[in-house]
Structure formats: C-alpha cells, structure tokens
Amino acid sequence: MQNADCRVQNGEQTVAALAPCAPFNLQSAIHNLQFIVLLAAALLAASSRAEDKPAPPKFTKETLRGRVVFLAEALEKKYGVKSVTEAKQAALALQDDAGKLHPLVEDIRGRAFRVDKRLRDIQVELLVRRYVDSPAVQIIGVYELAKDGRFEIDYWCSVCAIAMYELKECECCQGEIELRKRKSP
Ligand SMILES: [Zn+2]
Fold first, then answer.
1. Which of 41, 53, 112, 174 is placed for a possible disulfide with 166 were both Cys, Cβ 3.0 to 4.6 Å?
2. CA of 179 relative to ligand 1 center, distance in Å
3. In 10 A of CB 83, how many CB atoms?
C-alpha cells in the first residue's frame, strides 16, 4: 500500500519524493527517471522557444517634416561644399525644419520627388523607415503640410480610378494622371 502511494507520488510529483520510498524500488526509480527526462525535454523546448523569438525589427518608423531637396545642392548652400556637376542631382534628401539632411532611398516613392518638381516646392511630412546602419531613409507615406491642413499625396487616374506613387502615364490606360491631395486628419 505504502509502495503504491509512493509510486503515485513519485509519478506525479518530484524527485525529492523518492526519499521516503526506500528500500530501493525499481518501478519508482523508472518513474523518476522518466520524470527527469520529461523535465529536461521541457526545459530544452522552452530554451529553444526563447531562441525562436523574432529578431528585433531592422528599421524604425519616423515622421520627418521639412522640404525635399537635392542633397548636393543643399550641401553647397549649407556648407559651401561643391559636388561635381554630374552628382548635383544624384541624391535626394529631406531637409527637416531644423536644417538636418536625411538622404532618401530612391525607390518609386523617392523618385516621385525627382520627377515632379511640385513635390519639392511644398512643405511635406514624410513617414519613413530608418534602417539600422543606414543613413538613408525610405519613404512610406507623403503628406503636404499646407496652410489649410495636412493632405495625403499620391497620383490618380480618374479614368481607371487607380492610384500611383509617381507622375507618369497611367499604368492602365497610358493616359494622363493627376496629383491628388486628400485631406488627412
Ligand atoms: Zn488610367
């Protein structure tokens, strides 16, 4: 009876419960061994789960306000640094309200500022990704900061009713598209 109680206790509880079960009981010992193996497996699983945790994001999101400029032209204006002629318009940057320059990745959203001068003439708010170890930021949202409010900016074909990120022929009908400004809270 006592042995049976011990076995139950050993099976469900802890290794420490082995002590009152002397003299040596093979079945209890096996139960305890099984328990230890299970415990070790559980600990191993827990530690590998900890290693599986997603890596920290490689970028942070930021909001920048200012004006988009050509980096070389801004450097010349700000510091008198002259770039070679062919590099004058090589890179775009957001010059924030404090004067700091943030180079822009020139993907489709970045190129929109090269293609359409109107976008360089306005005060903008850019939602950007700033990647770890990179000075260049990537645009993921464009807003105009006008006197009468904040407007989300993209391009629109009214024939096809589709939006695009840069000024070009419509991707669908090859017709003209227009700069669209939608009031944004
Ligand atoms: Zn179209």
1. 112
2. 13
3. 16
**pLDDT, tens digit (0-9, with 9 covering 90-100), for 3-55:** 444 444 444 444 444 444 455 666 666 667 676 667 667 666 666 565 677 78
- Distance from residue 1's CA to the centre of ligand 1 (Å): 87
CA distance 98 to 34: 67
How many degrees, rounded to 5, is the angle at CA 147 between CA 142 and CA 149? 55
Mind listing the pLDDT tens digit for each residue in 90-127? 999 999 999 999 999 999 999 999 999 999 999 999 99
pTM for this prediction: 0.69
| Residue 114 to residues 23, 26, 89, 107, 154, Cα–Cα distance (Å) | 87, 81, 9, 11, 14
User: Taking the domains of the chain in order of start, what are their residue ranges?
Assistant: 2-51, 59-183
